[in-house]
Amino acid sequence: MSRTAAEIATQPASWRRAAEAAASFGEGLPRPGERVAVTGCGTSWFMAIAYAALREAAGQGETDAFASSEFPASRAYDRVVAITRSGTTTEVLDLLARVRGKVPALALTADPKTPVMDAADAVAVLDWADEESVVQTRFATTALAFLRAALGDVRGVAGVKTVAEAAADAEAAVADPLPEAVRGAGQWTFLGRGFSYGLALEAALKMREAAGAWTEAYPAMEYRHGPIAITGPGRVAWVFGAVPEGLAGEVERVGGTLHAHPDADPMADLVRAQRLAVAVAEAKGYDPDRPRNLTRSVILAP
């Protein structure tokens, strides 16, 4: 088993621990009614997109998500939340330096011995979720579980459950076999709405990172506005959460394979996509622990 696969399998327990940590964290978390910006790079940005959609859908305040390099300096926020596994990513640290003393900032990180500890006003250290693999899986979803748990009970919003229920769904996602039609496909399009759109983006990124695969991701309702043109025999449309009415028939009409677990929490379904990325990588002879052209953290020259 690759290190990445082993880390993927630990996510249910890691999410439960994150929920406990959120309950006792104290000051620094976004408060209901605050206008919040959530930021990160790569996988962390996609977790930011998911959290922002969930928080706003739960009625807790306007919430935007930005890649750290694209943060709009002219906008006013009550709080910034930065997700950074390594605590060393240049764009995140630069952004935190820009807002220092102007906007309270919370950082989520896996490493308490990095510059982010001094760059943010409050830091949630999720060091039990840190990873040896370059490809992020466990830390990203654990950070999202932490933020989800801090929102309180948001069951029914965007198809999500409690973190405990999501962890139970994830246990099934770790154990269930992946269908051969999905494992052996040549192209995958990941789709989601609201909270699950960020997860669709992350699923596509995992496939590209680990397996060098041809993947795309879109809001589910946008699929029929162009992306369906890529679907056909040997290609998969993977939907996170509820499948929009009529979409299954559209995929069938063009000869594609629809894959969905609408009764599972969308974050648990991301675990399946992570497993798929490892399986496809290994089938190609790639090492999912050491993806091509990637490093654990992007640190730019001054």
Characterise this structure.
- With 302 residues, the chain is α/β, with parallel strands linked by helices.
- It is built from eleven helices and nine strands.
- The strands form two sheets. The protein has a five-stranded parallel β-sheet, sandwiched between helices.
- The model has no long low-confidence stretch (mean pLDDT 95).
Alpha carbon gap, first and last residue: 39 Å
Q: Which outline best applies?
A: globular
Count of helical regions: 11
Number of strands: 9
Give start-end ranges of low-pLDDT stretches. Answer: none
Characteristics:
single chain; 11 helices; alpha/beta; 40% helix; four-stranded parallel β-sheet
Q: How is this structure best summarized?
A:
This protein has eleven helices and nine strands. It has 302 residues and is α/β, with parallel strands linked by helices.
Set down the secondary structure blueprint:
Layout: H1 3-9, H2 11-23, E1 36-40, H3 43-57, E2 63-67, E3 79-83, H4 90-99, E4 105-109, H5 116-119, E5 122-125, H6 138-150, H7 163-175, H8 180-183, E6 187-192, H9 195-211, E7 215-219, E8 235-239, H10 247-253, E9 257-260, H11 266-283
Parallel strand pairs: 1-2, 1-3, 3-4, 4-5, 6-7, 6-8, 8-9
Helix pairs in contact: 1-11, 2-6, 2-7, 3-6, 3-9, 7-11, 9-11
